[in-house]
Predict the structure.
Amino acid sequence: MKTTYAFSSPAKINRFLHITNRREDGYHELETVFQFLDFSDNLTFTPRDDDQITLTPNIPGVPLVDNLIYRAAQSLKNRAPSTIIQPLGVDISLDKKLPMGGGLGGGSSNAATTLLALNRIWNLGFELETLANIGLALGADVPIFVHGHSAFAQGVGEIITPVDIDCPVFLITVPSCHISTASIFQHPNLPRCTAKLTKQQRMKMDLRTCHNDCENLVANLYPEVAKLMAWLLEYAPSRLTGTGGCIFSSFDSVEEARKVQSKLPPNVRSFIARGLNSSPVLAELEQVS
Ligand SMILES: C[C@@](CO)(OP(=O)(O)O)[C@H](O)COP(=O)(O)OP(=O)(O)OC[C@H]1O[C@@H](n2ccc(N)nc2=O)[C@H](O)[C@@H]1O
Ligand SMILES: Nc1ncnc2c1ncn2[C@@H]1O[C@H](COP(=O)(O)OP(=O)(O)O)[C@@H](O)[C@H]1O
């Protein structure tokens, strides 16, 4: 009888996102605070007797070789120490709940959960820092999910300082438009020179005085996002996550969030989730001996 291991793959939000510089290689330097949500995709891993890696079901429009779960598993396998003699094969299943391309980091989260889970299941013994480096080649947000704690991030997201922040209840709204991260970063009207936070501001970390540099551009390009944002701001502090288009609105209680959710214009997808300072994956790893 084979063991199947179940792991979550949580969403993240960027409580703020300042773009401070554009590097020579075209990538942008950011300052952001990441927070996880108690709303996740679910992944299962069943080790195989051979060295095949399978993934079901397929994500429509994402070929297997491009799927970040498959890529993460392959990357890890390719770096396995030569002392590992058991076959590194696994059947992976994905229960996708997170909207894709909305700034909730689902792909990066899936990759990070895969790295963490397979490192443990295959007994590879890699340190978190090594997994984070393997993950960075897959996506800028993967290291945050590997480290698994709310964090202030700099660089392209790989310079990480863990922080403990407030954990409100969020109403997350999901506009129907799919926004490509690359298209926002390439846009000429993106603000790219927000001043870096001073040491004093970082100590205080008052999230209300920060903003998301992508927000105005995304609102201009996608009137649906602008309309939804204007509607939400009537009820609660609301901000874009990442390069959008999901918006998070903060509340003190689930009841208050539900009240606003029930008034949302028809056809706006939404869910309610609490902010977390720790990724649920950390506790789940403890369960695997
Ligand atoms: C900006 C964030 C904040 O969380 O946005 P979301 O994608 O979650 O909305 C992320 O760091 C995004 O990370 P991720 O989605 O992994 O981006 P990647 O695949 O690494 O990059 C996609 C493309 O966006 C551009 N890019 C990305 C990150 C960055 N710091 N500067 C960039 O210029 C590059 O053109 C790159 O080719
Ligand atoms: N396992 C995966 N889950 C989600 N998206 C994936 C996955 N593998 C590859 N992708 C690709 O990554 C893109 C960005 O997805 P996602 O991480 O959900 O959004 P965002 O970067 O806006 O937070 C998707 O549109 C898809 O093409």
